[in-house]
Amino acid sequence: MWTIVNDFHIEKTRLPVVLITTGGERLTGDLFVVGNPRNPSGHEDAPDVLNAPEPYFPLATLSGRVLLCAKSHVRELIIARDDVVEPDWSIGARADIAVQIAGGGLHSGTVFIAQQTAHQRVLDYLNRVGDRFLQLFTAQGVVLINREAIVHVEQVT
């Protein structure tokens, strides 16, 4: 008897998320994340998946379907506080902001601005960081917001 080993199988972990599309549809399910020994949590996290160059990612819904979601149509991805592996949030200057999203959503939370120049303004951070999704730390968890869906950002003092 032969045992066939699939060299293409990559072990993955499921991360519970809520995904909101640009059309306002709300999907609850699991994001698949790959093991990553360089990450303190031992696997990649949601920002790694959404900010990767591939235009699609799989989402396992609660009903058992697996959807291949287009990142360009994801408005927000929410990870509950209980499911967030907390990184060292103290890296960089803390900036509390409110983010208005197309379609009427509003999120308030914190971003951390790594000092690369003498300026640590929110504007510089928004213009400099090239990630497709803004990572916002909130009291409820982490919200990844598609930068294309942001209407405006206000710094809260």
What does it look like?
With 157 residues, the chain is mainly β. The chain folds into two domains: 66 residues, SH3 type barrels, CATH 2.30.30; 63 residues, SH3 type barrels (Roll). It contains two helices and ten strands, in the order ββαβββββαβββ. A seven-stranded antiparallel beta sheet has the order 4-3-2-1-5-9-8. Strand 3 and strand 4 form a beta hairpin. The longest helix has 7 residues.
Topology:
Elements: E1 12-21, E2 26-34, H1 46-51, E3 56-61, E4 66-70, E5 74-80, E6 93-101, E7 106-113, H2 122-128, E8 133-137, E9 141-146, E10 150-155
Antiparallel strand pairs: 1-2, 1-5, 2-3, 3-4, 5-9, 6-7, 6-10, 8-9
User: Briefly, what CATH class of the largest domain?
Assistant: Mainly Beta
CATH architecture of the largest domain: Roll
SS content category:
mainly beta
Number of strands: 10
Distance between the terminal alpha carbons, to the nearest Å?
68 Å
Q: Pick out the low-confidence regions.
A: none
Strands side by side in the biggest sheet: 4-3-2-1-5-9-8
Assign an overall shape. globular
- Estimate the helix proportion, in percent: under 10%
**What is the element string, with H for helices and E for strands?**
EEHEEEEEHEEE
Mean pLDDT: 85
Strand percentage: over 45%
- Return the CATH topology of the largest domain: SH3 type barrels
